[in-house]
Structure formats: structure tokens, C-alpha cells
Design a protein that fits this description.
The chain has about 280 residues and is of the alpha/beta class. It is about 25% helix and about 25% strand. It is built from eight helices and 14 strands. The longest helix is centred in the N-terminal third of the chain and has 13 residues. The protein is globular, with a radius of gyration of 18 Å. The relative contact order is 0.16. The protein binds the ligand N[C@@H](CCC(=O)N[C@@H](CSS)C(=O)NCC(=O)O)C(=O)O and fe (ii) ion. Its cofactor is Fe(2+).
């Protein structure tokens, strides 16, 4: 099994040099130019049975058009792979934000259909994958990357993936929050090593510290919303705008029924759906 260092120090997809000897005026012009001519190809995809969002990201300017999927669902793998083929992308990574309790991840199925794809999850999740990531790691695809932020609370191993910072990276930034932060809500904390204290700290230290215009994309939405921003959630999130004690009280009294598929989904997702024999 590969360790994450493989990606972290891999010269496969080196970044562009980030230093250019330009005047500060020209630099600021370049920064705004780069924001409107991003290399990032981005698609938000939806699986309606579990109200799950899957995200497709690719570096469309790179020769190979390397791509990754965040939180694919087994039921929609064929749709996602058809889209990837149609757009001429090369799928390199299939990432999970955490061990899902409400649906079976598509990661294993993807690996059985496209064997070169590497599955990615946090070491803290305890799940099987090809590549384990942790706080501060970078997952590179072409000239772009996702920065890994550990955001435990909904589960012990929850991650938020944030698009790269810097003049050659697309702006505004996007953060894929899994179930840590939902639009005007957050993930429940009553199973899988959940902790309302940890979730509160994760959101305030790892998500609300991002620039206010950062676009936030959750793993689920049950009300028809698709995207929010850091600034919007800091102002309007009915749970996370409260002080920590009030938040913990809200979370202790959600009274949600367990996800219908939890007994099937968690054991399956601990081995990333289905793993190939070689991984
Ligand atoms: N009814 C759904 C499960 C709904 C649910 O529990 N969602 C989770 C995220 S999936 S683990 C959650 O954290 N919800 C928080 C909330 O406030 O709704 C099913 O049966 O699958
Ligand atoms: Fe979840």
C-alpha cells in the first residue's frame, strides 16, 4: 500500500514556479487575470437517494487533463466515469472526505473499472485506501492541488479539501467540507467517533479562518442548496454562530434517526467500497 509521501514529494505534477520578478502593480494585475482564466474544470454532481454531492475537479490546461473525484457514490459511478471520458480527462484520484454512513462510496467500483486510480482518505479514518493524507498535505493534479485540513467532529477522520492558494491557483478558493459543515448546518456528532466539541473547534479553526469569499461545497444538502461561502456561514449558520456551550446543547438534542444504510455503508466504506486485489 502506498503512503502519502508518494504524492507529497512526487515530481509527477510539479507546481509552476511561484516567484516572478514583477513589479507589485503588475503582480496584482496578474492575480486578478489568473482568477478569471482558471485552469480548473469544476463540476458539482448529485446523487438523489442519499442527497450526496460528488465533485469533479481537473486541470484542463495540463496535457493529460488529470482529474479527481471527491466523494463518489457507488450508484452514480457510471455517470461520473462517462462524463470524465466525454470531457477527455484522466482520472487520477478518488477521494473520500470521511467514512460515510448513509451511502456506499464509489471509490472501490471506480478502481475496479479504472485500475490506475488511487483511493485517498485520512489515516485517522481507519479505512483502507491507497493513499493516506493528513493535515497540511497537498494532493496535486496537474499544476493545481488540494490542501488537506483535518476537521474531526462528525467522524474522527473527517477532512476538508481546499483548493490551492497562490497566484497560479484559481480564486476564489473552494473548500470541500464533507459533512463537517453543511449549508446552514453541520454534520451530526452522535456516531463514528463524533464529538460536538471537536466539530466546533474544527469549523472555527480550519474553515472560518479561510478568506470570507471562499466557496464552500458540502457532501450533502437536504433542502436544495448547492453552495455557500465562509462569510455567509459565519453570519447565518444557525448552529455554528452560537457559543460553544449552546452549540453542544443543540447537537445533543438533534434527535435524528440513524441513516437507513448505516449498517451496510460503514463496513463497506471501511474498505473504500470494493478494493482491487493489488491495492
Ligand atoms: N436521512 C438520511 C440521513 C440524514 C443524516 O443523518 N445526515 C447526516 C449526514 S450523512 S452521515 C448528518 O450529519 N445530518 C446532519 C443534519 O443536521 O441533518 C438517511 O437515512 O440516510
Ligand atoms: Fe457522514
Amino acid at each position: 500500500m502506498l503512503k502519502f509521501q508518494f504524492i507529497k514529494f512526487s515530481p509527477l505534477f510539479p507546481s509552476k514556479p511561484s516567484f516572478f520578478p514583477l513589479s507589485s502593480r503588475l503582480k496584482s494585475h496578474m492575480a486578478s487575470y489568473s482568477s478569471s482564466s482558471s485552469n480548473l474544470l469544476f463540476r458539482q454532481l448529485f446523487e438523489k437517494e442519499s442527497s450526496t454531492y460528488t465533485y469533479l475537479l481537473a486541470d484542463a490546461s495540463h496535457a493529460d487533463k488529470p482529474a479527481l473525484l471527491i466523494d463518489p457514490v457507488d450508484r452514480t459511478v457510471d455517470r461520473d466515469l462517462s462524463l470524465i471520458q466525454e470531457l477527455g480527462l484522466k482520472l487520477v484520484y478518488a477521494l473520500n472526505t470521511h467514512v460515510h454512513a448513509d451511502h456506499v462510496t464509489g471509490t472501490g467500483l471506480i478502481k475496479s473499472k479504472v485500475p490506475d486510480v488511487k483511493s485517498v482518505i485520512s489515516k485517522a479514518s481507519g479505512a483502507t485506501a491507497d493513499v493516506y493524507v493528513q493535515q497540511g498535505d497537498k494532493i496535486r493534479f496537474g499544476d493545481l492541488y488540494l490542501e488537506v485540513r483535518a476537521t474531526p467532529g462528525h467522524t474522527l477522520g473527517c477532512l476538508t479539501y481546499v483548493t490551492g492558494d497562490g497566484p497560479d491557483q484559481p480564486q476564489p478558493r473552494r473548500a470541500f467540507t464533507g459533512d463537517t459543515l453543511l449549508i446552514r448546518g453541520c454534520g451530526r456528532t452522535d456516531f463514528q467517533g463524533g464529538s460536538s466539541e471537536n466539530l466546533y473547534k474544527s469549523v472555527h479553526s480550519q474553515i472560518f479562518t479561510l478568506p470570507k469569499d471562499t466557496l464552500l461545497y458540502p457532501a450533502h444538502d437536504y433542502k436544495g442548496f448547492s453552495v455557500t461561502t465562509v462569510g455567509e456561514e459565519m453570519q447565518y449558520n444557525p448552529r455554528l454562530t452560537k457559543d460553544e456551550e449552546t452549540f453542544k446543547n443543540i447537537m445533543a438534542n438533534l434527535n435524528l434517526s440513524y441513516p437507513k444504510m448505516i449498517d451496510v455503508a460503514v463496513p463497506a466504506n471501511m474498505v473504500c467500497g470494493i478494493q482491487s486485489k493489488t491495492s
